[in-house]
Structure prediction request, 378 residues.
Amino acid sequence: MKRNMLLAVVCALMVGLVSCLDFDEQEIYAEHDQKADRLLFLICYRGLYQGAGDAPATEQLEKAVQNEGVALLSHWPFSGYLKEVREQLAAPPKADDDTPAEIRKDALALLGHIKALQGGFFVDLKGRLCGSQVLIIEKPGEAIPLSNRLISAAIIHEAQKNPPQDEQGRLALDLARKNHVWVSLKGQSIVMSMPMPEEQFAQGREQLVANLIGGGDYATDALRKQALRDILSNPVFVWHEDSMLSVKVGVEGRPWRCVTKPALGKYQPNLMEHVKDKYGLHLEENIVKYLSNPDAPAQTEAEQAAKLIAPRLKKTDLVLFLVRALKEKPSEALRARLRAVPLKPELQQEGEVTDDQRLALWENWLRGEALPRPPEKK
Prediction:
C-alpha cells in the first residue's frame, strides 16, 4: 500500500495524544519586520508542567529543545519538530512513498524559510515555569506563495488517489485547480481562506459559542470568564460568504499580540527542578542584558532569541524583569529603561517621581497583578 509523504510528515509532526508535556497558557506576539524581510512570532509558553499520561514530559521537553519543537493553540499534541521534518524530507524517498518529487521539493524549500530559536526558560510573575522561543519566517514574499502552491498540490495529489466524497472536499479540489490563495499577508496581518459549506460553518459557530460561554476545562469560573475576555479581545476577524470561510489574524498597521490558549489554572510546579538542573533559567538574565545594552552581540541561539524578545516584551514581563534586576544589581542603564516605561494611570502621582519611588510603585503594582483575580460581583 503506497504511502503519502505529506501524510507521513503530518503524522511525524504530531506527538501522541497521551502527551504529558503541557502548558497552562500561551501568548504569541507577531510582527512583519519589513526592513529585515521576515515574519517574527514570539511564542511564550506559560506554566509548563507534566500533565496526565504515561509519557515522561522530561523526554518530550528534551526532544522539543533539540529538534526545534513548536506548539500552537492548545498543547503538545498540536506540535511539530522542524528539524525532524527537514531530515525526513531530505532523505531519499522510501519505496512505498508515492509523493511527487515536486511536492517534496517545495515542502523542503518552504521549511528552508522557517527556523525556531529556543530562548530558554524563566519564572513569570505568578511563579510559573515558562518558556519562550522565536519562530522566524525569512522572505515571506517567497515563503507564502510557496505554501499556497504546496497546499494546492497536496489537495490535488490526494484527490487523485481518494476522490473527495463531501462538499467541502470538492470545493477545496476545485479551488486547488484554480491556484487558490489559501494564505496571504496584508501588512502585519495574516489572512487564511478555505471552503466551508454553510451548514458546517453554522454548526462550528454554535459549538464555539457553547464552549466559550458554558464549556471549557477551567479550574475556576473566574478563569473561564477571563478566558472569554482574552479570546474576544484577540485581533481575530472571521467572516463567511459564498461557502468560503476567511480568518484574518492581526491588524494591518502594527504588530499584534494574541492569547492562543487562555489560562486553565492547571499548572503544577512538577518540572521546575528538572528544568533548573538541566537547562537553567537563563532567559530573564539574557533579556535583561539586551534591555541594558540593545547593541550587545548575540553568540548563542538563546542570546539571539533573547535579543529579539527584549524590545518586544509584554509590559508585565518587561516591568517584572527590570524590577527584579534593579533590586538585585542596580544600574543606570536599567533605571533609564524603567523610566521609559509609562506609569500606569493608577500609579500616577503629583510632581516628579524619583527612581526609587518609581521602582517602589512598579513593585507594588506587580504584587497586585500577581494576585488571583477576585470573583466578579453579581
About this structure: Residues 5-275 form one domain.
